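User: I'm new to structure prediction. If I give you an amino acid sequence, what do you actually give back? Let's try with this one:
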Amino acid sequence: MKRTVAVILCMILLLPLLGCELKREKSWQEKVDSIEVGMTIEDLFDLMGEPDADMGSGTTLLMYILPDQHVTVVHVNNDYTQEGHPLAVMDKPVVLSYEDFKEHYRHYPDDPNAWWNAE
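Assistant: Good question. You get back a string of structure tokens that encode the predicted 3D arrangement of the chain. For your 119 residues, that looks like this:
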């Protein structure tokens, strides 16, 4: 009888833990997939962290170097449809391999001679 009561008591005490969904860290792919057009730059930074480089020249292009030799570039500009015209994501970003990135931008993302890495 004591054993049965102890088991029931343990189950009651563990019940709240079973109801809680454990928060897991999103994968980089899930993070990139959840970037939406109109998302403010603050929301982008909350999701992705600080960018690895600002590649813009007259516009803001934020580069994120991702694991597994992948890169994404996020186009950010003032959103005049929102009050205060915050910086917001303008296009849904795509993920590029290092090779595709180099083909488009003529440098690898971590190339120290690329204009976004020049000091």
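You can read the tokens as a compact description of the fold. Here is one thing that stands out. Strands lie at 53-54, 60-66, 70-78, 87-89, 95-97.
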